[in-house]
Amino acid sequence: REVTILFTDIRGFTTLSEKLAPEQVVEILNRYFTPMTALIRQNQGTLDKFIGDALMAFWNAPLDIPDHPKLAVGTALAVQENLHSLNDELERDFGVRLAMGAGLHTGDVFVGNMGSEDLLDYTIIGDNVNLTSRLEGLTGAYGVPTLVSGAVREICGEAFAFTLIDTVTVKGKSLPVDIYEPMRHEVHAGREAELILFAEARELYCAGDFAAAGAAFGRLAASFPQRKLYAVYQDRALELAAEPPQDWTGIWALTKK
């Protein structure tokens, strides 16, 4: 069955939890998950499971949900927006602020009751589940809050604004995947000049002009030091300029999950 899958995770939560008492960790997670699960239910998603500080949900099973990719992306953006206000409370009560990564992908999976003879869960399995998990993991590497696959971007059309972040092959897979950051149109409009410069720098990078790309990403990194993405690309472009690869395609092979 075709579904849209969502994985979320709190960045650096293991390190953060070492500084807190166990009961504080539990209260923070409860406050964090409660509005998130409410948003998933309100937007017709199926909550699959909690995995520590991670969450997995999906759309279009067991019931048919029209426009499920749009609902899933809208939910992910709403969760990120809710986290901004929640962080004010958490900073006041615990002295911490949370950052969350979210990955989304649409594809075919096996759906049903799975497990052992003693315990069954209604869940999904398949390669597309693994890919979604990889996308969530990449949010930290690129420093963007939410990443979606090209499949999600294509189905959503103009419902949201999308910025192409990279084309990658994830660990364990050979086919490349386009990864995008989704935004609400008003947010994209406020960053339009910045994102045009990023797209121009990526064109230089994809064309193999690594020196010029490194300089362009360096200017972006200096202008927007809060965005890890530009520093990541600057370092990568300078590395490639020092040792240009043969048969460059613009596709970046990831060696870590």
Task: Give an account of the 3D structure.
The chain is an alpha+beta fold and 257 residues long. The chain contains 9 helices and 10 strands. It has helices at residues 13-17, 22-42, 68-94, 127-142, 150-156, 185-190, 192-206, 210-223, 228-242, and strands spanning 2-10, 46-51, 54-59, 100-108, 110-115, 120-125, 146-149, 161-169, 177-183, 252-253. The strands form 2 sheets. Strands 2-3-1-4-7-9-8-10 form an 8-stranded mixed sheet, sandwiched between helices. Strands 5-6 form a two-stranded antiparallel ribbon. Helix 2 runs antiparallel to helix 3, helix 7 runs antiparallel to helix 8 and helix 8 runs antiparallel to helix 9. The longest helix is centred in the first third of the chain and has 27 residues, at 68-94. The mean pLDDT is 95.
Provide a concise account of the structure shown.
The chain has 257 residues and is an alpha+beta fold. It is 49% helix and 25% strand. It is globular and about 55 Å long.
Radius of gyration: 19 Å
Q: In percent, how helical is the residue content?
A: 40-55%
**Oligomeric nature of the chains:** single chain
Content-based structural category = alpha+beta
The first-to-last residue Cα distance is: 26 Å
Count of DSSP H/I helices: 9
Give the strand order, joined by hyphens, for the main sheet.
Answer: 2-3-1-4-7-9-8-10
Give the biggest sheet.
Answer: 8 strands, mixed
Stretches where pLDDT falls below 50 for ≥5 residues? Answer: none
Question: What overall geometry do the principal axes of the alpha carbons give?
Answer: globular
Extended strand count: 10
